[in-house]
Amino acid sequence: MAELVMRDVSRIFRSGRGVRNLSLTVEEGEFFVVLGPSGVGKSTLLRLIAGLDTPDNGEIEIGGRSVTHRARPDHTVAMVFQNLALYPHMSAYENIAFPLKMMGLGRREIEERVRRTAALAGLEIDLNRRPSQLSGGERQRVALARALVREPRLILMDEPLSQVDVQLRSVLRVELKEFQRRTRRTIVYVTHDHDSAFVLGDRISVMHEGRIAQIGSPEEVYRRPANLFVARFLGHPPMNLLRCQVAESGRGLWVNDVRLELDPPDGESGELVLGIRPQDLSVQPEFGAVKLEVKVESLEYLGARYLVRARLGNQALLVELPRSLQPGQIAHLYARADRFHFFDATSGERIGQTHDKASTVTKG
Amino acid sequence: MSQRFKLLEICRRALSAFAVVTAVVPIYLLIKQAFSVELDSFAWPPRWIPHHLTLEHLHKVTSTGELRESLIRSAEVATVAACTATLLGTMLAYAMTRDLRARRWGLAALTASRLLPMIAVALPLATVLIRVGLYDTPSGLGLALVHAAIALPVAAILLLGAFAKIPLELEDAAFLDGASQLTILLRIYLPQLKQALAAAFVLSFLSSWDEFGFGLLLQPTNRTLPPLIYYYAVFGDVGAASALALVSTAPVLIVLVALRHILIRQPKPPAF
Amino acid sequence: MRRAGRFLRLSCLGLPLGFLAITLILPLLSGVILSFQADGFSLENYRFVLGDSLFRRSVYNTLILAAASLVVEFVWGLIFALLLSSRRRASFVTEVSVLMPLLIPEIVFLSVARYILLPRGYLNGALAAVGLPAVGWLDPRSALCLLSVALVDAWRVTPMVTLLLLDGLQGIPAELYEAALLDGAGSFAQSRYVTLPLLKPALYGALVLRGVDALRIFSTVLVLAGPEGAPVMSTYAYQLWGDAMEEHRAMAASVLLATMIGTLGAVVIAFRARTRASGGGALEGLSG
């Protein structure tokens, strides 16, 4: 059953930012990640779902009930804020107990539920301590416990992991994913960090300028980006995007004056944008059938690999290779034809799907 | 290098000594005059060390009706002014940290009210207060309201700093946790503002307690302390003036020295 | 933002601003109206005030007094701020001493200053003790009287300047001095190229704040020199109102003072808006 449904929701601020005609459905028990650069409307989206803000138009349903015009948030939604928003003057216990107190529960029941939730969130500390006396990870867990304690249908998270250092973040990330898998809570998680999105999300929705650019599983959005924005935004280093011209014959491409023996999708002609990830290129001929002749310009040593900056035609190309190349040298790179992505040069939308068999290799 | 360092150190010492002397002399003279007999105060050359000590001036301050009344009036006026200024300052600071447009309006109003010369407000205000029956009343209510208006910017700026430290998300979180506006105010904001509220109250209280100009113009017969000290000092009794001044200074000094950290690190409005 | 809080936010802004408007702005405006009244609408009050040689003298006195007081209090304020902010922390006694004139109620400080400066006061007593003749520090209408008032005013408000500048000094990161030292800057070059430029916003803000205060000086003059000893604009208006019972003329004089200060404020704010990046602090100083 769909836990959260948004239909054509808009909330636009005077600055022009906000959310535009956005529709999405989150299933029960799903870990749904909203991914996008900062200022793209992610937090607005969360605030709309939480009831901290009201949409200009559109409908929002939670658990089958419309919540578009609720006056007060009910117990169905809880939120973990980016800065966690723990009450600094209350102990960890009082923080977690606060929502229950507001519900008017008795002391006995509050105590019981706080203890149970704290254990569920992995809190093994003295709950009488104040937030300022807790470590970053402990604070995260207190914030999570406060969100969980009312047993909401839907938990919203606004980049709660952005405040902790990288190492702790990856630990907490795994923990959070594990927790969600175990308890099957429905979570909407907003972030600008695609590592978090990939680790956590059952599905990812990539946002761009207040709209959804693509929704899909992590594999889908990474392997088949629906448009240039998603292609550029996901992956590090970013995907190479090259302007190219379909050959007169309809077979093969021209990147400036360099010919690629790679067939465009059927029926395409004129200018296209060709995408290839730096990791999908190799110096070994057996790696793939499409050959690219590039000029090496410089390289950076990354530890496990080298990041090579090269030129194809007069366009820049990044390649990740396990071994070093000489700057100035002409190198041959190989890639599988199905690893190339095609985008419409004007609309930026993805074109068709490339298959290995569709591309033939001829000597140029 | 060490020669120069030595010179610098001597300068530092000299400056400190100068500061101490200029601070101690007025206080010493005040205390001396408050406790010495008339004869000592009018002697020529003036006596730096009193020949005869007396408690008569202090006794006069506490027993004479006019003096005691003005002492009580000053305390009442300052209390009303401080409560009003703290309450309104809290509201203004809240609005200013939660709303950008409110911030601009608030800052403009605070700036404008700091620019007004006392005399340009006090003269017409006297006319207004006469009309509404708050001029020169025994309770000094009219004066208390003006003092509140003067202290309001100070209180608001002080609380602005405290509010700025409380993230907006805290209010959102409490809202989602099911708290009403009143609960948010009482259980989320108030506990975190305690210190700033106390500081705002004390500073507003003292600014009213010390205020001279409006008091002089708006309470010509039912006087507050500062104008009364002025009349005694200029037109009459040195001993009583000093004793009265001492009584009005002592609580101020104690509070301010205790609070000097707040004063030295005066809170500034956050940049925006 | 959230709709539930809208009403609360509006009333939180409206109530205090309304209060300020009723207690301060409304009287000011009614004063402006009254200042134009003399048997109906007329400029008569302004004609009288501007034609009065005592008023012209009081304008002159106000400006001289402000200038003299500002120079003295800024020199001393800077010296004390440096003293309090130096790496070796000043002692508690020094700290309290520097602030003392600000801590004592204004009127108490001024009356003690008066006892010191009176013809048979402590200062002349000290002079006599070393065989010097007595000086008329507060002789009405003398230049010396004006100077005495300026010095006492500076003495009293130096702590406030000190605090404002201290705040600016403490905002300069220590790393900058270390960097300057490594770049070969001596202590003079450090003050010239690090302290002074970075202190400029604080200096500027303090100057505006104190400048406004200096122009509306009232109690210092009244207590030390009496309303006629060294008339300034505000005591002139007070005199007309209280002793001469010329209410409307008094308001004309005080409106002129308010206009002077308002113009100064407007110029400063306009100037700051133009050089926003470099000239911070002025507005904050005013509202703080």
Helices and strands, with pairings:
The complex is a heterotrimer of chains A (364), B (272) and C (288).
Chain A: E1 2-12, E2 18-27, E3 31-35, H1 42-50, E4 57-62, E5 65-66, E6 77-80, H2 92-103, H3 107-120, H4 136-148, E7 154-158, H5 166-183, E8 186-191, H6 194-200, E9 203-208, E10 211-216, H7 218-223, H8 228-233, E11 240-246, E12 253-255, E13 258-260, E14 271-276, E15 290-301, E16 306-312, E17 315-321, E18 330-335, E19 341-344
Parallel strand pairs in A: 3-8, 3-9, 6-7, 7-8
Antiparallel strand pairs in A: 1-2, 1-4, 4-5, 9-10, 11-12, 11-14, 12-13, 14-19, 15-16, 15-18, 16-17
Helix pairs in contact in A: 2-3, 2-4, 3-4
Chain B: H1 2-35, H2 38-41, H3 56-63, H4 65-98, H5 100-115, H6 118-132, H7 141-164, H8 168-176, H9 181-210, H10 213-218, H11 225-235, H12 238-258, H13 260-264
Helix pairs in contact in B: 1-12, 3-12, 4-5, 4-7, 4-9, 5-7, 7-9, 11-12
Chain C: H1 6-35, H2 44-51, H3 53-85, H4 92-103, H5 106-117, H6 122-129, H7 143-170, H8 174-182, H9 187-215, H10 219-229, H11 233-242, H12 247-274, H13 282-287
Gyration radius of chain C, to the nearest Å?
A: 23 Å
CATH architecture identity of the largest domain in chain C: Orthogonal Bundle
> Proportion of β residues of chain A?
25-35%
Low-confidence stretches of chain C: 277-288
* Strand line-up in the sheet with most strands of chain A: 6-7-8-3-9-10
CATH architecture of the largest domain in chain A: 3-Layer(aba) Sandwich
What's the number of structural domains of chain C? 2
Radius of gyration of chain A: 25 Å
Biggest interface between chains? B-C, 93 and 96 residues
What is the string of SSEs of chain A from the N terminus onward?
Answer: EEEHEEEHHHEHEHEEHHEEEEEEEEE
Number of strands of chain C: 0
Helical fraction of chain A: 10-25%
Q: Write down the overall mean pLDDT of chain C.
A: 86
Shape of chain A: elongated
CATH superfamily of the largest domain in chain C: MetI-like
Overall body shape of chain C: globular
